[in-house]
Design brief:
Its EC number is 6.3.5.4. Helix content is about 40%, strand content about 15%. By secondary structure, it is an alpha+beta fold. The longest helix is centred in the middle third of the chain and has 20 residues, at about 380-400. It is globular and about 65 Å long.
Length: about 600
């Protein structure tokens, strides 16, 4: 819901409203229903609005509460805002709107930065305090909503997307070599606070940052999942019931809106159980949406058999979107431009095209992202379980990393290499942290708090918000994550992965959905490069901008272009696509 931007000056000058408006213009697709800007002294804030809650003008942003001396911009949704509004009302607060934005303002006045502990939702916000002169930035626990920052001469800027920060100029756009290492090794994930650009950072998930009038700042991490056993033991059946009830609560929470809420239905168990629970709650005329693509090189491009079965079982108002190959080719530049950071997953284009179609009839959807990370759905968890604590880091490295650090030098030009392995260091540090009773618990915690945030969740946010569509993810309800973090890994890995979810789904979903092979959003035209997509890849890697930058070894690029589909990463992704996507992204955003 929406896009936010701002500039906070600490050099004694006035904030540049024009710079903030330039950022807001880039964010317009995230909030096409209206905009607003305020500027006074060292601070300027802008907002692009997607109308979901309080559709009247009283819900517009930036929201100024003159009585409390607070001004806020906010992206996301506080699902428990009605309950918080009642609680704050009992304490004497008066409301002039019915929006969750105003609840954030009152909650901050009442509890200070600890207000975030009261929020159940997804959010990135900025609150300016007239009395103290401070700026407070906050991000939700699982990083569902993004917030990027950049230090420019005498000021801090922030925005909902990285490209927005580049619009006014003045940002260091050189390549962050540590981030590049992560991109080439850690499955294209660049963990917060880094981005691929040296001059842009992102506020980490579950962090509140307080910026003082002199520009100094302090961070508070207010939530860290433990993934440890509780004091009470439960059987496999009891854990299935716990999962079912906790997920049902999460799904119910995400129906709060003043507009209809639909579901992105892939036909897998994750999105299908969301549909089943909504149907169980009596949702009528629930809109569901599925997408499929033309096959390529013998690789199927849809899973309509499964999504059709779910839609028929629950009588949803189902829309099936069949995308011809030409549409995939044409959509690629738009999808790349919509990325806040380079994202190599081939299903980015799928989400981009799906969101385009869905946004024509609805503004809010629920989606199934997060189940694999929280509930043990990936195939690298069993090998980690077999080796235990002693060999867990090496097992994770072998199973998940795209390539070892030593192999990066075969692709990346020498001047962009680092003399250590920051990706492996990051994994070691995470596995060594307190908590996480077993090795698999540590892997699940790492994937939930790092990989999930900067791959699947970011992908869904970027592609849906490119079309003014808000995606809500019940598997990333923090109460659900905390609850299921205590579930023993053997119950999660059972039955081929996500065993506890499959057990929870029995009786809710058809067995064909529960027992099917794990699926994904297949986009064969990206996995098997040919035709116009391959032409775009070739053009990007041979463009004068790519040659000037010299990120990659020319011999390695030439070899991959000669045989575009044989080079694969450790997890089977197209290696040429990974290299080309970074150049395509840099060129799309005018970075030389």
């Amino acid at each position: 819901m929406c896009g936010i931007a701002g500039e906070f000056r600490y050099d004694g000058g006035a904030a540049r409203v024009g710079a903030v408006l330039a950022m807001a213009q880039v964010l317009e697709p995230r909030g096409p229903d209206g905009w607003g800007v305020v500027g006074h002294g060292p601070l300027a804030l802008a907002h692009q609005r997607l109308e979901i809650i309080d559709l009247t003008e009283t819900g517009s942003q930036p929201m100024v509460d003159a009585e409390l001396g607070l001004t806020a911009v906010f992206n996301g949704c506080i699902y428990n805002y009605p309950e918080l509004r009642e609680e704050l009302g009992r304490e004497g607060y008066r409301f002039f709107s019915t929006s969750d934005t105003e609840v954030i303002i009152k909650a901050y006045h009442r509890w200070g930065q600890r207000c975030v502990e009261h929020f159940k939702g997804m959010f990135a916000f900025a609150i300016a305090d007239r009395t103290t002169g401070r700026l407070v930035l906050g991000r939700d626990r699982l990083g569902i909503k993004p917030l990027y920052t950049a230090s420019v001469s005498g000021a801090l800027r922030f925005a909902s997307s990285l490209p927005a920060l580049l619009a006014p100029g003045g940002v260091d756009t050189s390549i962050d070599t540590v981030a590049l290492h992560h991109y080439m090794s850690f499955h294209a994930v660049v963990p917060a606070p880094r981005t691929i650009l040296a001059g842009v950072r992102k506020l980490p998930p579950a962090v509140v940052r307080t910026v003082e009038p002199d520009g100094s700042s302090s961070d508070w991490t207010y939530w860290q999942p433990e993934f440890v056993r509780g004091t009470t033991e439960h059987s496999a059946g009891e854990w299935a019931e716990i999962a079912r009830e906790s997920l049902r609560t999460a799904v119910q929470r995400r129906m709060v809106a003043d507009v209809p809420v639909g579901v992105l239905l892939s036909g897998g168990i994750d999105s299908s159980i969301v549909v089943a629970m909504l149907a169980e709650e009596g949702q009528k005329d629930l809109k569901t949406f599925s997408i499929g693509f033309e096959s390529e090189a013998g690789e199927a491009g849809d899973e309509f058999d499964y999504s059709d079965l779910v839609a028929k079982t629950y009588g949803t108002d189902h829309v099936k979107i069949d995308v011809p190959k030409a549409d995939t080719d044409d959509a690629l530049p738009g999808a790349v431009a919509a990325m806040s950071e380079p994202m190599t997953s081939h299903d980015v284009v799928a989400f981009y095209l799906l969101s385009r179609e869905v946004s024509r009839s609805i503004k809010v959807v629920q989606s199934g992202q997060g189940a694999d990370e929280v509930l043990g759905g990936y195939d690298w968890y069993p090998p980690i379980a077999r080796v235990g604590r002693e060999g867990a880091v090496d097992a994770y490295h072998r199973a998940f990393f795209d390539r070892p650090s030593s192999a990066i030098a075969d692709l990346v030009a020498p001047e962009y290499l680092v003399d250590h392995d920051p990706s492996l260091d990051l994994v070691r540090d995470h596995f060594a942290r307190r908590g996480a009773d077993e090795a698999v618990d540590a892997a699940l915690r790492l994937d939930t708090t790092v990989m999930l945030v900067d791959d699947p969740v970011k992908r869904v946010d970027n592609m849906t918000m490119a079309w003014g569509l808000e995606a809500r993810v019940p598997f990333l309800d923090h109460d659900f994550v905390d609850t299921m973090g205590a579930c023993p890994p053997e119950y999660k890995m059972a039955d081929g992965g996500k065993g506890v979810l499959k057990a929870a789904a029995r009786g809710l979903l058809p067995d064909e959905i529960i027992d099917r092979k794990k699926g994904y959003f297949p986009v064969p035209a990206i996995r098997q490069l040919s035709g116009p997509v391959l032409e775009r890849v070739t053009a990007a890697l041979t463009d004068p901008a790519a040659r000037r930058r010299g990120l990659f070894r020319t011999d390695a690029v030439a070899t991959m272009l000669d045989d575009p589909n044989s080079g694969r990463t450790n997890l089977g992704a197209n290696a040429l696509w990974q290299v080309a996507l970074l150049e395509m992204w840099l060129q799309a955003h005018g970075i030389d």
